[in-house]
Protein 1
Amino acid sequence: MLKRMRSFLVLVMLLLTTTVSAQVTTASMSGKVVDASNESLIGATVRAVHTPTGTIYNTVTQSNGQYRFQNLRIGGPYTVEFSYVGFNPEKVSNINLVLGEDHTLNIVMKEDAQTLGEVLVVADRSSVISSNRTGAQEIITRDKMDKMPSLSHSLTDFTKLTPMSSGSNFAGTSYRFNNVTVDGASFNNSFGLSSSLGAAGTEPISLEALEQVQVMIAPYDVRNGAFTGAGINSVTKSGSNQWHASAYMYTKSPSMTGYRQKDDINTVTEFSNHQYGISLSGPIIKNKLFFYLNGEMDRQEKPVNYKPRATKNDEVTGEYSFADAQTLEQLSQFLQNKFDYNPGTYNVGSIPTEADRITARVDWNINQKNTLSVKYFYLKSFATNSPSTSGAPTNGRGANSYAIPFSSCYYRTNNNFNIVMADLVTNINDRMSNTLKVGYSALRDYRDMDGGFFPQVDILDGTSAGNAFTTFGTEVNSYNNMLNSDIYQIQDNFTWIIDKHQLTFGTQSDYRKFKNGYGYSFAGSWRYSSVDSFYEDANNYLAWKEAGADPATRPTTLATSFSQKYAVQGNGFPYAYVDILSLGFYVQDKWTVTPNLNLTLGLRIDTPIFLTDLDKNDEAAGLTFQGGEKIDVSKYPKTKPLLSPRLGVNWNVFGDGKLQVRGGTGIFSGTPPYVWLSNQAGNNGLLFGDLAKGRPFDGIALVTPTAADIKSSKMDLAVTDRDFKYPQLWKTNFAVDYSFGDGWIATVEMLYNKDLNAIYHRNIGLNDPVGYVQEGSGKERPFFATGVATDSKTGLDYPTGYYITDRTTNVIQMKNTSKGYSFYTTLQLQKNFYHGVMKGLYLNGSYSFGKSKSVTDGSSSVASSAWKYRPAVNPNVEETGYASGSFRGRLLLQAAYTAEWSKNASTSIGAIYQMYQPFRYSYTYNGDVNGDGQNMNDLIYIPKDRTDINIVPATGDERSADDIWKQIDAFIKQDNYLSKHRGEYAERNGAITPWAHQLDINITHDIKLPLKNGQVHTLRFSFDIANFLNLLNKDWGVKETTVYGSSSSPQYQFLTMTQAPTAANGYKPGFTMPLNNKKVVTDTFKDLNEQSSRWQMQFGIKYFF
């Protein structure tokens, strides 16, 4: 029955609905035609011509003198002609339309006796003043993309021009909840493994192929959906009646890279970065059929910034890590001699990334009523990555100032796709139009590596700080890691204009099929507190094996942690399958209340339906978890429609475009990263088993579990709450735009977001609290563990026995929360100089400020990681903290100027300056203070004084408790965040790095080459310079980062737990300030010794016509 229903629902979707991810890809034009007495002219003929393609649009004015063109191509130029019996014709030319704009063009026509001849008006105005504009958004035109600096040639280089952005986050909301589309096709990595399609460091589509980009944070048009962060909507170039072609190349190299920052002189590792592309467009049939084609390839060798110091006696400075080459070489020889395994090199100088892209488009003007557009997108790419930070030791696995990994644990992410989209636009008559979109996407992503198949081993530095030292073996997340995604999408919007009302009826849907392979630690993973500890453990195994390998005498492991999974069914690697159908319906009325006032009222209903049949786990269903919770891993959430009412307002106060008041309020429904939903299918206890009992290091990557192993194996489970809903956010926006002087526009914009259905994870596999930690706070931090053990090498305590059943480990439940919110304000001033001595100058300055609070950042794709990487006091309740994308303030200045030296030579200069704080971070303990089995997620209590903390020196530490307190107290006093929050728990992401100053510039010189046939070809030379300030002065442009942790691992740990809480000691933990290289940390921040702190240049050459 379920299979029949599923087939029926998919059929309904294909016949009736639209893609959830599709956004508006056209523009519109409207206005009013009156006579000299301001009387409406009824039945006046209005004719718009898209000059490049000769496409003609015709309409007539209605009873109120108003007219409207729907579904116009973006760009231009357009020429609009007005005619009426007894009146002179009027013509307006040079109109260019931006994505999503409703261009207002009002005309006063004069009678024949009043004026002789034709009047020519040149349209020249900003798109900020537009009746379609309600909430916060930014439009990036082709002209801006050509003039602004872009060293990575990525979409992010231009979406950052949105005032309320912070990296790929918008208004504090995580990038995971953005919706990225190109020509209506979904370019999200909707499964949630990254912010967009394409391997890390590569782009899914060539920037050369894009005509415009629109970033919408709060659009109140219900046609825009499937996001709670931002909708990032791009439209590709199209062909025209003229032939156009281009060939281009961009390159970066060590010779164009800075090596000095302040007094540090760094060695620039050899690397290369080349991008090549060609494009061609033109008519197949003039005024009828056009094509556009772009092909591009990237070849990159990215530098690795850190290298090992030669010996333990050498200093750790600049680009040199604490890990030393002498120790790493000895370790490599040991592995080769004892296990016949070559871990690779520890001197990785650069890592390769490649991408091949194709964008193709055909546009057909079938007749004056119908146009058809077909697009094709192709990508084949891979990126090489350093070891994952997932489950990493303190400060990550490197390469960094602490750790240097071997090349065997680097891995490649391969991302490939084929996407086809088709649009049919039908203008039925003057008042009715229809837009139909259909598409299919085949996405194929997988990982591979060069290091062979061998267990991953993390080795720490042997100190109480517990920093990483090195890693080798198969990266724990990469074995058989693959994702096949098939997405079917279809969209239909019907628009009907009735007097002052523009009614839109639409349906939206997509059908997604996922096949996911993921087996964390399938090759096994070990962690040791020191190199010596690893040697001893491995030698114990080898001696036992040499003595006959009697199971009864197998030595116990010295590893501080061990994990290895196996296939429960024993018939090959198991995969998870997830099918989801999303249905959407909406209705909207854009009501022109008066010529100056527009109201947009809409209602959208989105309904996700889970079509996957999941196997039942009777054993798991019979268990009782924390708080008496019962689960059923065979059931996904109930089908629940999500209602999203919206109201948008646009008021042109005086009717002259000088003062615009706009805004709106309404609900936005998004989609969760689908990987979070697939976790239930992949972690149901029926696919993988987890060997619970550790063993000394044996180098065995694939295991065949014994009956005893299976009996002692535990289930790692993930489940979604039955009442779970897709993310929903209530957005309220208010803005005022004021045009003054000769085209200056000042804007004040405020945006408030309130979570209705956000997402968080909790671990119901933990014990109910057995006590409460006494750490001086006077508050109750629950404690879950029932036992304690001591690391024989470091002497540090750690809790044991934290799981509620002996058959399960982590049981992660995904639920909703409504506790998050954000509030941001932007002040903006901008101007385009079209005339006079400053012609060609563009200025735009903005300052945005506010904050964003959330329950979780959702920083991982794995359910257990999404839970354990959320720093908290109580990891199982809805604690709010600062969102990782929350920023206090951001100053953004943009400028571009074109100087025309002659009719055949011009130079453009573009600049972007940002003042911002790079990332937020949390102060957490190094150690498992609450007994939940995790060492990095416990927010610290910041002691008021010596009596507020129990100091217990580590084994072998010669410092007294009072000496350690003086060091702790000195560190707290020098830290701006800690010193202001004594006597409190640190907040998640409560601290933030110092202000950074980034100035990037672009210099472009065009040489025009007139040909005898009248054509003009252009040769363009360009220089993009990142961090231009550092080029001017070695002390400028240098960013600061945290001494412990990083932007990718934002936990700062300066307190280490030496005594675990137990019932016997009244649940009172002991702490120390660890020694690192015989020193304690004294400063919160240090200079960031990476390329972003130094200047880098890119050279480009382009020939086009």
Protein 2
Amino acid sequence: MQHKLCANCGFLNPSFKFCGECGTPLDAPSRPRELPAPDTIAIEQALPHGAERRQLTVLFCDIVDSTAFTEKLDPEELRGLLEVYRTCIMEVVLAQNGHIARYFGDGILVYFGYPAAHEDTAHRAVRAALGIVAAIKTLNPYLRTTFGVEINVRISIDTGRVVVWHISAQESPEAIDIVGKTPNLAARMQKLASPNTIVIGDTTHQLVEGFFECDALGASALRGISQPVNIYQVSGETPRQSRLDIASESGLTPLIGREQEAEHLKQSWTEALAAHGQALLIEGEAGIGKSRCVQLIQEYVENHSEAATLEGRCSQYYQNSPLYPILSLFQEHVVQFTNTDTAQARLEKLENLLQDYSVPTVEQNENAQAHIPETLPLLAELLEIPFEIQRQTETGIGIHPYSRPEQDTYPSGWRRRQRRQQTLEVLVQVLLKMSEQKPILFIVEDLHWIDPSSIEFLTLLIARIENARILVVLSCRSDIHHFRNSIQSDEKRDTQAAGDAQFGNDAVDREILKQLLQPAYANTLPLDPLTPAQVKIMIQHVVGDTQLPPDLLTKIVEMTEGVPLFVEELTQMMLEGDILALSSDAIDVSSPTETQTVAVPVTLQDLLTARLDELGPVKEIVQLGATLGREWTAELLHKIATGVELGNNTFTDFAILKGELDKLVNAYILNLDKIADNQFRYTFRHPLLRETAYQALLKSKRQQYHQQIAEVLQHSDSFQPELVAYHYTEAGLSEKAIDYWHRATHRALERSANVEGVRHITQGLTALETLSQNVSTPEEQEAVMRRELELQTTLGTALIATKGYASPEVEVAYTRARELLETLEKMEETSSKDETDISLDQIKDLRFPILFGLWLSHVVRGRLLSARELGEACVVIAKQTENRAFEVEAHRALGATLYFLSEFKSALAYIDKGIEYYQPQHHHAVPAFLHYVAEPGMTLLAYSAPLLWCLGYPAQAEERLKKAIDIGKDSNHPFSEAVSLHFKTVLYQYRGEVAEVDTAAKQMLQICQEHAFSGWEAAAMVMKGWTIAEQNRPEEGIAMIRKGIAAWEETRAEVLLPLFLALLAEAYQRAGQYNLALQTLDTAFVVITRTGERTYAAELTRRKGELYLILAEKVEAYSNENTAATLAEAESYFLEALAIAQHQDAKSWELRVALSLSELWHTQNRDTDAYDLLKPIYTWFSEGSDTKDLIRAKNLLKELEE
């Protein structure tokens, strides 16, 4: 059966004399229409790569009630019918670059997006579906005449991620196969379509919404699909041409960060208005905002002048159609054709246009004036208007000429080249004449898809606008490699076949643009990525009132690299996917290789995949680099490439690999940065492009790559255990991964990178859980328990630094570790040494840090009695292990607990014993502070400072504190320095020295905020708030103290709360809010009763007495009787405080209480009592005579002696 192609509309007609679509005679001589051929190069390049994961759009089409044809038609006739049907479908599919994958009788399965992806893959699929429905309707009259039947089709389309691979080396459609939910879903959905209709799934609808008319059919249950599927019916295509057209209707995100570009565009228009023609090429990568800048100048021109805006757009569908964007522009905006115009009406409009503007033409005599009879045929043919002229040769210009006359009536001697040049000249003259009447904004977008003839026209136009009121605005992508050479010799053109409409196929570089922008008034306007700050502003516009977690905001900024389209789509995807509901820990913005998988929005996957498909075989190098990380050197990539199986073995040659990487830089896939002499680093230009390349790899290939990367990295000079751990994890080698995650955690904690430490150890536990699922023997289970014991112990330590000592997570970690420890001890007791490889000594070594971790949790949560028991147990275990590092920490634990219990002398004895055991060189060789967070010698000295002060040794306390501060600074361990500064604030607050507390609190706040020490930051806030209140800014100080206390309580900590509440009460007192001060002190006593922390009990009681003295002054004017009662109340609190201090042997607290009580008695003329009380405690002190309290006591005693 012979099929004839309509040259007018492209429809394939089986044995028709006239086209069934448009009625054009099929026997008339015509130039054959060029149908897009299968992308053979892409297929060949894809073959070696094997299977891969990618987003694919699948179309399924079949005939409605096809089984009825088996009864009506002879088998041979049925075969003929199917042949016509399949041929019809094939032509439509190929026109949209689809790939017919398989025939199922009358069913046809089509892939869009493989072997080569397009950024509008889903659009092509839907457009093909509409074309199929239209073609079948046109075909039916022929089928009815030939076979006595008509056919109806049902089409379904779905988009999703699949695995695609070549099942044979043959080039038949069946050589490619896919697996995944998408093809099954497409096949199931087809049953829901009515005859001659198209249904699409949710993802496809998301990709084509706005470009096609879609009606929601609701959610439907499909056989074999667990969840109902949203179905949409497509009824036609809309006139919208770009995402911007759609977004403009629903509301655009404000244009951000383009102020300079906007000013440049406006200034160029101002110049054009003054008859100084201008040309601007807006250049930037896909999604950077070129169209938004074009829209900006359009709106500016429309709002500020009576001008003509002429807009055309290049299309990837018409790269081989000469002058496509120029013709579209002229037809719509210059001649202003409408769909209802007849050929005669169009011809009249064209003739009127030429008369209105007196457009000249060039004949053999170059001085000839306007000659409409000769100009009109040129433009009529170009604009596809039937015109009765006789000619012998093709013009080579225009899309699908309507007539094919036989004799040439153009000026004699004209060659094809001259005629084309004359036609372009006429177009330019039309624009120049138009600009004399009104200024023109002439726009052509997407030059990366331009045809050679249009480039030639634009070059001519720009060269002629110097003195015209025309601003030419063009746009194109930065990665230009699609231009076709439009400069060819006349001789070459004359040798082309008459039907060849292309002016050349040779790919060229940026020389084309240089020629285009050669005049001085023609410039490039490059668009750079937005800054991180600008991206954050844009994100906020997208999310509206929704609050993004800071780490998620950071992740979006990192992944989008300042490309507005990426910012909008990724943010929108996260909003729609409810990712904002995740906790902050769910988004790990510090993944060691930055390769943590982030879903690429479906709206961007085709665009990014198309960029990768253009790379050919070098794509696998991009994927290997994507697996390695965001950045790397060529030398490192080469080491890895030599150890993996690649489709192209030449990449193992360093020179070849380096050359390919440089090509990737030129293709805007990679950036190249110099990091040292002769050392360069390659970085992926876009994280989302890298993510797309990585996600395309099969899991098995990923694991192979990750294993090789880990093996290379573990022996590298810049060894980073977290990188090795990550790659072993992704390689599925959990046991190796656990070791490196553990090492990475210790390294992070050593550097006070505590947040990272928690993440590393959590990853290790996840890997251990994976490993535990594959163990079966008791020995293997025992080994897993041992590994978990080590990891849980380390996790508890890391959590202390990040969450605070009292965090529930800390207690959970250490409690789990204790359970594991006890289980292992029982296993040790019931097993012989031959049956287990875990020794009792090893278990005891783990036992101490676990109990110590639990002690930390209990003491900070104010569980002082259980903390005392744990501290005593630590001392016993440390002595048994004969480990001096443990003994130091054990004595610190028990000493600190006794300090909070106000057993000051016993506490100092344990602290001093710990200091005696402490040997700096020994503890640095065995870095115990990695287990216990803060440097042990510093901690012991720091605790002893307030202890010695309480016991009446202020000078020794200050000396100990100075040593602790020095160790904290020298340790290069920020956490230790922060802890030492906390004890400094406490000691100097005890002493009442505001300036010293203020300095230390500032330093402590800075360190804690920089390293996320949340608990200690809260303590620093309280101390800083107290100093502010003491500087006569009580309201400001109160706010800060309350904020600090709230943050402290958020960590579940209760220790130190009595001190913090006392400082708040003092600030209330300074603000004159006495009732609040008393209430706050009462709250502090409640905490003391609950926890047993009595370190500050004497001072709290004394301060309550001081408050009653103030209240006594307030009531004195009203009632002497009430005043006396209030003074008596104050005296009773002083006496109670004195008893507490004496019971604690807290000489400094006793001195301060004695001062308050003696001053009260002095006002009551009880000087003897006052002197007898104050003199003994004053004379007891042998140091610290320059401290405030001793100076006050000395002065008061002199006054009492008088």
Protein 3
Amino acid sequence: MYLIFPQKNYILFFLVLISSFVHAQLSDFNFSVSVTEESCSGNGSITMEVSGLETEAQVTYKLFLYPDLDTPIAQTSSSMFSNLESGDYLVEATQTLDDFQNTQTADATIIDAITVLDFEVDQGYSGVCGDLILVVNILSGNAESFEIISGPVTVPLQTGNTFTNLPEGTYVIRVYDNCGNALTKTYTYLFNDSVLTVSEIEQSNVLINCDEVTIYQVISASNGSQLSYPIVVNFTINFSDGNETTSYSQTYDNGPETELEISTTVTDYAEQTFTVDTVIQDGCGTMVTSTEIVNPNPEINLSEVANVCGNDLIIAISNMLPPFTLQFIQAPIEFNPSDYNDNQGVYSDFVIVFGQEDEGLPFGVYEVSIVDACGNIGEASIELVEELEIPVVNTSNGGCDTESGALSVRIPNRELVSALITAAPINYSNAVPDDVSYLISSNGRLMLNDLPLGNYTLEMIDNCGNTYIEDFEIPEHEIYDFNVSTSVSCSTNLGALNLTGGNGTVASVIFIEAPVEFSQSLPYDYSYAISSQGIFYVEDLPAGNYTIEFTDSCGSQFMFTEIVETYNDDNNESIYVLQQNCGSFDLSILDNDDAVVNQTYWFQKYYPEYDSWGHPNTGVMYNEGELPTDINSISIENGESLLNIFVVGEFRLIKVFQTAVNPNPEAYCFDIFGEFEIESELTINDVFNLNCDGGSGPSDIIVDVSGVPPYNFSIISPIVIDNGAVNVFTDLSAGIYEIRVEDACGSIAATTINTMDLLPVVSLGNPTDMVICSDSNNNQALFNLTEQNTQLLGNQNPDNFTITYHLNQMDADSGNNPISENYENVINPQTVYVRMVHNTLDVCYETDAFQLIVGFAPELGADESTTICEGNSILLSADLGYSSYLWSSGETTRSIVADTEGTYSVTVFNNYGDFYCEATKTYTVVMSGVANIENIISEDFTSNNNFVDIEVSGIGDYEYSLDGVTYQLENHFENLDSGIYTIFVRDRNGCGVSTENISLLNYKKFFTPNGDGENEYWQITGSHLETDMQVFVYDRYGKLLINFSGNDIGWDGRYNGNQMPTSDYWFLVKRSNGLTHTGHFTLKR
């Protein structure tokens, strides 16, 4: 079966054609339109202009909204359609004069140029003492004015986007755009106490000159506050000899918001230390002081940094003017400075390093002296002391073998290169000293197993050449307990269990008892869950008591009982707090779950265009199953609150954690513990009239909105109506109205409507019948009724409506007993009733009916093939008794005449109203004709082994015969006797026969010209059929005796009238086709 859909009948188009034809008495006129884009809700317009009208003719206009060109949405005689939404329109202009009319049409597209108002609020600082501000940042739309409508204080409407002098608290800010819409958002304004601090004094490593030093401090405003200007700074300098005091004062009228660097230059200090007293006061009167002693003299700091072996020497220089001359006053004798630094004693860097790759300086005392460009001298010393690392030696005897143990040795920050056992128990298997260096691992550690009990001495050398001698003991065998631990699992109703052996690894595990929820039959061998390291771990156990038996690698058996608990997500909703505000929301996390470890919490937004979750602000997508990051999610700390979140949409919270007993440190669990949706801002979705079933009529309108209820509905122009919370305005006269809606947050949405242009709440399109064509003569079929929804909805949003189907009008009116959307008819045809209601505006409905028809395709015969001869034609006829026919040649009659070769198809229709069932039959017409015999190729001059090949041309299908009775497909005949033949070539399609005579020649082998009347002449047999043939006769010496043609009687055995003797004679035949043949014969007397 197959379902047939009708094509759209554009009735308007045909009406225009008919009108133009019938009323051709009116001449065509010029018609054009211009549009104004929709910049505010419902303010688009179309302006019409006509010219070339007949005198005293009237013009009216109809407006259609694509794709519905059947029903106009407005009609006027003025030159403008106003208060239109964006969309594609068709305008029909009709010129009327008396009883005559003609029309012109034009398309018009109104562009949606509305920019939706959106903004965010930031906390700022004006720089004035104690004056913190809120700044409104416009993200989109055309903002015109701003106000605070709720909070500790309110601020009336203003054109600026900044609010100043605000106390701490929560505010609702409202912003108006140029269309009269207003958007509100909530912002929590926190005031942080400003703390003024000043840093310690720092000196520049580089002196400006030999007599001055510059000191620096940084003034900072902490706790997220800003500096308040002007800032007054007073420096007082007291030299250590007590003879001089110097004061400086500086005022900073402006500067950076949070940190201000201050400095002063001290001169003529004559190598003295001095005290700096700093007093700072900001514009708010806040004061901070500091007192520090400054040493301006050269400072040399020596430090050591560990190298692979030994230490490097670091020399740091301060309070000097480069270049510097460096001299080692004292150093170990083996130290050569040039081996550790390429410079030759003169430096310009303030940090100088002496060292080699992988090798430090010789140990000992180093004393350096540095002289700068001013002659200032700085000295310092350091002792590099060799401190051997202490080997880390671990012995154990906890394996399965009670008579042997193990040793592990490592040197911190070193690698072992040699190991020698110099003393061992008497039962040690090798002779001592025993070089065990080959057992040192690649990371420089020594591991020895199967050592007999007793005392040992081990001598080792590390990669720096240091020697270590360590005594150790392999102790008596020790019994270790196995370890079993449980924790919650990643899944809500499952827990995890981890089991490790004591002296041996886990070898087998048998579950003896388990909760009833455990899905396996008991006892259950769970050994397959043992890892290659001998650890048993499972994480899919139902909660409850378990009795488990296991065997370790030493062969010991154990049995224990353990309680497994599961992850509890029953309290998920209580671990986060969602505070929805006007235009924003706050989010807090407070999780007391201590059953899991390494918890992190993440906030994500859903992006339907990608069907994926991602970062709420940036839109970077998150890959499911991976660890969230700050790039694709927002991290929230436990106990933290995110304030003033302005985004809208669908959101979720993810808790990422680890179970306490999972041996895999990279295994994480993901719990989506919160999902919620934040609705968009206040929106007027549409305005409808109530001219529908159950409605109150076209003079009443209803406003469909979304936002934060309750709402206040009002008309503000051309009359004022405050409708309160009621969204239906009644008894309105036809005209243009400006509607305003305000939600509970103070957001305002406005639109302008023309009541004449409004559609009803439910506008049900006219359903066409549904037809399914049956190939099996079955009267029943399964209909997908939702295939009607597109034509029922028209331009309306399918998300806003519910469509149901019913078996009678009563059920359609009440909405009761809807049938399945996949419905099989019980009679043929069957009437189905449809009902459509608005999902949120349940004030009226619309119903209609259509038929379910199981149609039948025409039953046509098999495809046919036929042949016609050149110059003839044939009548092709389809089966009789069907609604209509359509040939591939375009003809619509039941029969057509075909006079050319080709494939002809006819589609035959059974019509069911606007629908049809069809079948197609194909006729293959082949053209044929009489053959043209082009050439006959023969091989003759034999008695019975001659052949002919017949070459023909033509469009037919040919067969061949030599007697006109028996035909063959091959054009070759062989084993033929010499003689005269008629060639027959017949068209197998009956278009005729072509013939041609042919002689297969031969000659007499002897003749007897003795006058008895028998065999008196020698001639080529059949030569009379080739009259142009020439025959030449020679004696055995090659002498030409005679020549004659094909129509002559032949040779009588004479030459110049004399009889030739008995003998063999030779002949040459030249045929008309250019072939020659030679032979010989005998003349007998």
